[in-house]
Amino acid sequence: GAGVSQSPSNKVTEKGKDVELRCDPISGHTALYWYRQSLGQGLEFLIYFQGNSAPDKSGLPSDRFSAERTGGSVSTLTIQRTQQEDSAVYLCASSRFKGSYEQYFGPGTRLTVT
Amino acid sequence: AQSVTQPDIHITVSEGASLELRCNYSYGATPYLFWYVQSPGQGLQLLLKYFSGDTLVQGIKGFEAEFKRSQSSFNLRKPSVHWSDAAEYFCAVGEAIQGAQKLVFGQGTRLTINP
Known about the structure:
The complex is a heterodimer.
Chain A: E1 5-7, E2 10-13, E3 19-24, E4 31-38, E5 42-50, E6 53-56, E7 65-69, E8 75-79, E9 88-95, E10 104-105, E11 109-113
Parallel strand pairs in A: 2-11
Antiparallel strand pairs in A: 1-3, 3-8, 4-5, 4-9, 5-6, 7-8, 9-10, 9-11
Chain B: E1 3-5, E2 10-14, E3 19-21, E4 24-26, E5 33-38, E6 44-50, E7 56-58, E8 64-68, E9 73-78, E10 87-97, E11 100-105, E12 109-114
Parallel strand pairs in B: 2-12
Antiparallel strand pairs in B: 1-4, 3-9, 5-6, 5-10, 7-8, 8-9, 10-11, 10-12
């Protein structure tokens, strides 16, 4: 079956612009996670959704970052007023339910802020 | 907070040679441990996992890992590497959050294969 998909695969934006990154989880997976992979910080957790609710937003690095999930499926990560330090690969993962510990990752969105 | 250490940033082995990638974790209780592989430009693929039971776990692509509680280690092994194994490997521990698990990753080990 189809895996986790993310779009766009690459995004180049100017400093100060807003960007939206999209994640389509595996069909039927209720838990969804966003991670960020950067040279300086490695792989770090950003936010977790169970259904449309985000019980843990502890990893969001600043209030410029927000995320939502609709219909228990697609999720959007929004970064407002992008900064150069936001340049990274943003990875999305899903799991069947919140107690399922196997997470399946998408290919990521590479964000470059110029 | 949990943490994962992968001491080797970069390892080079010859094709056909054996491989061991090291991973040490910090966790108070019985950990949920994972190894993921990332090929260039790709997402993360789960190689294997340990939750409980037999401390030697088998994964995909001929990989195995051994959980050693006394050493807080979960090293990844393969008896004979293939050129296609060249990639970056991440060890991770699951940290409980609101009934789910977020993954805490090590810094990764980049594996290069010499022909």
